[in-house]
Design brief:
Elements (H helix, E strand, L loop, with lengths): L1 H38 L8 H34 L2 H7 L8 H39 L2 H4 L6 E2 L5 E7 L5 E11 L2 E14 L5 E12 L8 E13 L16 H6 L3 H27 L9 H26 L5 H5 L1 H18 L7 H15 L14
Helix pairs in contact: 1-2, 1-4, 2-4, 2-7, 4-7, 7-8, 7-10
GO cellular component, one term: ATP-binding cassette (ABC) transporter complex
Main location: membrane
Keywords: Cell inner membrane, Cell membrane, Membrane, Transmembrane, Transmembrane helix, Transport
């Protein structure tokens, strides 16, 4: 059918533009945050692009939901704005005729969102956690950037002037720490990484001094050394058992339930239903008066999306805190949205009904004017006297 083909073509065109815009904005914000973490020594500079890719996969479900909703809203709004909707209505179509072609796009999109939220996002979160854990497990010397003061494990603050390419030698070392509440400062001309028989890594510094305490106190000590060793790391495997719920596969969430995992499962399974319902909700929300503009309905639509996401977050927190079970929290929001869709469709289809909100509001205004002794100026309504 010409109508369905034209509608799908417009939807795909709008969706590509919307997704490109949303993805660019998201990647920009992610890049700023990740670069800030890299500059602060929280992640390795070499992992920036990898983390951006994993973060993008994690945000894909939300981006696709917003893309589908905004695309339908833009297409319907444009049809009203350009008076194209009048032509379709004159051809015998109604607003419900939009449901079938919209569903032909919304259903596959919801399947993609479900696959991403249930399978891909947990994998991306697991990879991000492993990248960060590997960096946390690296010895301190690998985290130090030459020419910068950086805070390391145990509250130590270190500065080195030069680091060799293989990360085994450093020049002009400064380290500040606290031992039993007393400040200690170590300065050395050079140092190198050595591994003992047990696989433990040490930074062996040479030609330096150590200062313990404050110069103004009586217990201040200064020690000069030829060699001084500091433990960097022990030979221990990475601990991968302490995974967050976001990084766990869905089968683990089902087999080993607890409030936190139930909340995560609720979030994952709710996203595809949310995407499907929001695309249907955008059909009646897309109505605009061609002579007025389309700003108002866009604002209302975006507010509804924000409210929907916030309600889902609140339900997730209620499940995590044990206030609601998974099953009691999984259906009310989607049922309310489905009822809203039906009400909005009735609002747009039953425009001649005496119980239509606009008609009822017009009658109420006329009654109010008559009580004040004023004449009703709404000529579209016949008010009984």
């Amino acid at each position: 059918m010409i109508f369905q083909r034209a509608l799908r073509r417009e939807l795909f065109s709008a969706a590509s533009a919307v997704f490109t815009t949303l993805f660019t904005i998201t990647v920009t914000f992610m890049l700023i945050r990740i670069l800030r973490d890299a500059a602060g020594g929280k992640i390795a500079s070499a992992d920036v692009l990898i983390l951006i890719g994993f973060y993008s996969l994690d945000y894909f479900p939300i981006l696709l939901i917003l893309t589908g909703f905004i695309s339908v809203l833009l297409v319907v709004t444009r049809a009203y704005q350009d008076s194209e909707m009048v032509v379709w209505f004159a051809s015998g179509l109604s607003l419900t005729s939009w449901v079938k072609p919209i569903l032909s796009v919304a259903l596959p999109l919801s399947i993609v969102v479900g696959t991403l939220s249930i399978v891909v996002s947990p994998w991306a979160n697991e990879q991000m956690q492993e990248v960060r854990n590997r960096y946390e497990k690296r010895e301190d010397i690998a985290k130090v950037a030459p020419g910068k003061f950086q805070e390391l494990r145990g509250g130590r603050v270190s500065f080195v002037e030069e680091v060799s390419g293989d990360l085994t030698k450093v020049q002009n070392i400064f380290t500040s720490m606290y031992n039993d509440g007393r400040p200690s400062v170590i300065v050395a001309k050079e140092g190198k990484v050595e591994i003992d028989a047990h696989g433990d890594r040490f930074l062996v510094m040479s030609q330096g001094r150590r200062y313990d305490g404050l110069p103004t106190e009586g217990d201040f000590q200064m020690m000069q050394f030829e060699k001084y060793a500091v433990l960097l790391s022990t030979q221990s495997p990475l601990d991968t058992s302490n995974k967050s719920a976001k990084a766990l596969p869905v089968q683990t969430l089902i087999d080993e339930p607890n409030p936190t995992r139930d909340g995560e499962l609720l979030w994952r399974v709710s996203l595809p239903f949310m995407g499907l319902l929001l695309m249907l909700l955008a059909i009646p929300l897309g109505y605009v008066n061609p002579r007025v503009g389309r700003s108002a309905n866009m604002i209302v639509a975006l507010i509804l999306v924000a409210v929907n996401l916030n309600i889902l977050n609140m339900l997730q927190m209620a499940v995590v805190q044990g206030k609601l079970s998974f099953w009691r929290a999984s259906w009310p929001m989607h049922l309310i949205v489905a009822i809203l869709i039906s009400l909005f469709f009735m609002w747009r289809l039953k425009v001649n009904s005496p119980w239509h909100p606009s008609t009822v509001w017009g009658h109420l205004k006329c009654r109010l004017y008559q009580k004040r002794g004023q004449q009703c100026v709404n000529h579209d309504l016949m008010v009984d006297k």
